[in-house]
Amino acid sequence: MRNFTYTRATSVKEAIQKATADDDAIFIAGGTNLVDRLKVFLDEPSQLIDISRLEMKRIERLSNGGLRIGALVSNTAVADNVDIRRDYPILARAILAGASQQIRNVATVGGNLLQRTRCPYYYDTAFACNKRQPGQGCPAATGINRMHAILGASDQCIAVNPSDMNVALAALDAVVEVAGSKGQRQIPFTEFHRLPGNTPQRDTNLEPGELITSVILPPVPFAKSGVYLKLRDRTSYAFALVSVAAALELAGERIENVRLAMGGVAHKPWRPTEAEKFLIGKPANANTFQQAAEIALQPAKPQSHNGYKVELAKRAIRRALTVSAKGGGVV
Ligand code: SF4
Fold this sequence. Notes:
Pfam families: CO_deh_flav_C, FAD_binding_5. InterPro entries: CO_DH_flav_C (IPR005107), CO_DH_flav_C_dom_sf (IPR036683), Diverse_Substr_Oxidored (IPR051312), FAD-bd_PCMH (IPR016166), FAD-bd_PCMH-like_sf (IPR036318), FAD-bd_PCMH_sub1 (IPR016167), FAD-bd_PCMH_sub2 (IPR016169), Mopterin_DH_FAD-bd (IPR002346). By secondary structure, the chain is an alpha+beta fold. Among the domains are: 52 residues, Uridine Diphospho-n-acetylenolpyruvylglucosamine Reductase, domain 2, CATH 3.30.43.10; 103 residues, CO dehydrogenase flavoprotein, C-terminal domain (Enolase-like, domain 1, 2-Layer Sandwich). Helix content is 30%, strand content 19%. The strands form three sheets. The chain has a five-stranded antiparallel beta sheet. The chain has a three-stranded parallel beta sheet with strand order 1-3-2, with helices on one face. Strands 9-10-11 form a three-stranded antiparallel beta sheet, sandwiched between helices. Strand 4 and strand 5 form a beta hairpin. It is globular. The chain starts with a strand and ends in a 6-residue tail after the last helix. The model has no long low-confidence stretch (mean pLDDT 97). It binds iron/sulfur cluster (SF4). Iron/sulfur cluster binds next to helix 8.
């Protein structure tokens, strides 16, 4: 084990200065995934910079009708927030579908964005893993890969992003606000996470030393019809085999607008944009939803043990769209 120091940042500026000066420093807030990784030496920082006391714990209404969620707001606080439950139920339901109440009480929005894959080979250091050590190989590609990606994978890594919250935020076209030594910037949510390509060790497009400060939810009036459907091996405390976030805006029977995102299928929350384009202007019925599901899964390339995910994802899309077309609610 590598010894590390622990410091508590008193401001965003101080946290960034400390992280910028030390490539091996890691921010810690709720720690619900990071501490697991520290215990098995996946992460061996030189210092932990505790940001948990910083002023990033508010949910604020924006002048355009959207919301800004501080990076240190707990998952429980987001899921319980009255405005989010009313205007973005898709997000509240996604959060409540994940983890346990105890974990949600301490896990933060910023940390949720940064949680790493639950690929078992990644966590077991007896195995090689390109995500831990680029160039070592990917045992999942020829091993047990029933939980792994069917979309957007590479020969370097076939892991999936484990977050439920991320799927909802992708569907809502959220924006991630970050601060670093070069100032502040905004990253569209769909560009925040990366596909593995030749750099499977990088999950996000954050630059070294950058800190997530908040997540913006733009106004999406039809998000009130949003649903989150999570399919998993057991009904609590399990990661998604496939999940779907969907929201429809209808004018009579006709689809005016749609948001669709999938989890459990790729290295990042997956927006099937071709399926979304297909849906616009079509009648909201079973035939349309079936065709959209076929389009969404057309690029799928299942692994040796997860061909079942293709059909499961199609059915999940159909179901989520059907429920959203009826006004949303619990799936
Ligand atoms: Fe490692 Fe990715 Fe392969 Fe899993 S899928 S063993 S995380 S390289």
